[in-house]
Amino acid sequence: MAWNEPGNGGNKDRDPWGQKGKEQGPPDLDEVFKKLTSKFGGGKGGKFSGGANFNKVGVSLVLGVLAVIWVVSGFYTIKEAERGVVLRLGQYSQTVEPGLSWLPTFVDRVIPVDVKSIRSMPAAGSMLTKDENVVDVKMDIQYRVINSREYLFSVTNPDDSLHQAIDSALRFVIGHTTMDDVITTGREVVRQSTRENIESIIGEYHMGIELVDVNFLSARPPEAVKDAFDDAISAQEDEQRYIREAEAYARAIEPTARGQVKRIEQEAQAYQQQIVLKAQGEVARFESLLPRYQLAPEVTRQRLYLETMEAVYSNTTKVVVDTKGTGNMLYLPLDKIMSANADSKPARAANTVAAPQQPAKSNNRYQYPDTNSSNVRPDRFNTGRN
């Protein structure tokens, strides 16, 4: 039998779903509040007169606990290598230094940014050079954050923006450089130019980043022409090695050459002094002959002539004999004459002044003996030129 059928004796309250069908609307909040008040208050009929006061104390206690939790949850710590960027309701408020700080929870939010660590970002790819060749380039960029606010808010994604700036700058520099310079002698120029271009882009967009170093790791030609470029690089290395060897040889030989130059200069100065002294001596000799020549010109001329002829003939191996007026057989000791001439040559060579680097030849071919009249034989004046 159903619960609500007429034979049920009209006992509709026994239907467990009967009451539910009568209350189809939302619950009455006032009724719920009254029930809670009755529980914390004096129950039915308001037996306890202090129920309202107890309710206020409980609410205050709950609010106090929540306030303490809210205050405690606002404390945070920024590390030594970091700076804290505080956002208030989603907008930038301030930058916090390292240490313990506090912010209102649910109102402010802090983002720590590492500003001390050196970060690294690689860059690599196949690029077209100025002479329309393809080269594989690898670089490593080291940087750090110097302005945490600009780093977070100047661009949407700072790391991705930096990567694009590096790639753009590197391709620009490689595109304006020949392949030979990129691979061999122009690596430092490429590195420096790439750094300058990256810094220009970073400064233009205010990314809050500072470049620490740009490392040019490698630059390789395609495998198809790698052997030819290796040969070219080897030849250039040999060239540099030969240059260094030549410079080392020059540094080694230069002191010897300087010593030789100094010695030649000293020999030239000594030669100059000897020539001057010899000329002065000859001048003094002729000046001493002048008074005698003025007293007896013919005798002096004859004596000078004989002395000169004696000096000339003493340096030759030819023997001149005057055979007029004599019929006697002459004996010529040729062996003694030759030996005497041979002995006289070293003595004359010792008295000869030598010029630097070569034997010196005196302008005066003759050696004059002492002109003292006591050393001249009287019979010389008996024979003369006819």
UniProtKB/TrEMBL annotation:
Q: Which UniProt keywords apply?
A: Membrane, Transmembrane, Transmembrane helix
Annotated compartments? Membrane
Q: Mind telling me which Pfam families this protein's record contains?
A: Band_7 (PF01145), HflK_N (PF12221)
Regarding the membrane, this protein is recorded as: Single-pass membrane protein
Q: Which domain of life is it from?
A: Bacteria
Q: Where is the composition biased (Polar residues)?
A: 359-376
Q: Name one GO cellular component term.
A: membrane
Q: What is its main location?
A: membrane
Q: Where are the transmembrane segments?
A: 57-78
Query: What residue spans carry the region label Disordered?
Result: 1-28, 348-386
Q: Which InterPro entries match?
A: Band7/mec-2_domain, Band_7, Band_7/SPFH_dom_sf, HflK, Membrane_HflK_N, Stomatin_HflK_fam
- Gene3D superfamilies, sorted: Band 7 domain (3.30.479.30)
* Regions of compositional bias (Basic and acidic residues) in chain numbering: 11-25, 377-386
Main function: HflC and HflK could encode or regulate a protease.
Q: Which PANTHER family match?
A: MODULATOR OF FTSH PROTEASE HFLK, STOMATIN-LIKE PROTEIN 2, MITOCHONDRIAL
NCBIfam families to which the protein is assigned, alphabetical: hflK
Official protein name in the record: Protein HflK
